[in-house]
Amino acid sequence: MEEKILEIIRKYKSFLITSHIRLDGDAIGSELALYHALRRMGKKAVVYNEDETPEAYGFLPGAEEIVHTLDLPERFEAVFVLDCSELDRVGKEAARIGNIGRVINIDHHISNNGFTEWSIVRPAAGSTGEILYGLIRKMLGTVPTEVAVNLYGAIMTDTGSFRYSNTGSETFRIAGELVAWGADPRWIAEKIYETKPLVQVLLLGKVIGTLKVCFGGQLGIVHVTRRMLEDLDALPEHTEGFVDMIRTIQGVEVAAIIRELPSDACKVSFRSKDKVDVEKIAGQFGGGGHVNASACTIPGPLGEVRKQVIRAVGKALP
Ligand SMILES: [Mn+2]
Question: How many domains does one find in the chain?
C-alpha cells in the first residue's frame, strides 16, 4: 500500500492535507511534516483544519500557513486525511473532502473504519507521526529540519512524552533519528508544555476541586462546568492535560474528566493505566480512541452523565 501511495504522490501535483477536529499535536505535526515534504518535492500542498491551531502548537514550522476555510481557488488531485479513524472526524467539510476522490488515510487508531481504499493504518504505531516518518524518508531520502521538528512534536505529544504504553523501541529509534535530523527535544518540549496561559492553571485549580475517587480509589473523576470556563474566560482547550494529571494519583486505574458542552450533553475523556481498556468504555457511548486514552460525547446534564460514567467504569474495573 505504501508503494501505491508513493505512486500517487509522484504522479499528481496538488494535495490537500487535513486531520480531525479538536486538534492535537499528532494531527498538526503530521500535517505540517507532510506539507513540507510535498513542497520539497515541488508539489502544491494546502493544510486545512476546521479548528484554529491551539496556541501551544503555533511555533511548529508552517503553522501560520494552515487555512480554516475550503473556499480556495485550487483544485486538489488527492487529499491526505491524517490521524483520523473515520472521514466524519474531519468536521463539517467531510463530504466535500471525500468528493476529492483520491482520499489517502494514514492513521493509528484501532477503531479505524477503513473509509478509503488508500490507507496505512497501524494500531501498533504510537502516533501518526511515527508512520509518516517512514513514508517521508521514502519521498525525500532525507529529513529536513522543518519536517523533523513537526514529527518529533507529533510523536512526543501522542506518547505522553514517551510514557504511554504505545511507546515502543520503534518510537525511540525514530525520535532519536529525528533529533539527529535537527529536532531539539528541550526546545520543542518547552514550547508545547511550558508556555501555558495563566488562566489554564487557574482553571486546573477549580477542576481539581471537583475531584472524587470511587471504587476504593481506582477511579478518579473530575468535571468542568460551562460556568467555570465563563468565570475565567477560559477555552475548552485549556482543559487539555487535566485528565492525565488525575491518572497520576496512586491507585487510580481510570481517570475521567467530564466537560459540560453548550448543548445538553457532555464530553468525557478517559485515561487508564494497564488494567482497563478505556477505548471499550468510550465505545459504549459511541466514542473511541486508544486502550489508554479515549473520549466520547454523552447526552444529558452533567449529574446524569457522571452517574453513567461511574457505572460504566465500575463494570470495566477488574
Ligand atoms: Mn494520533
Answer: 2
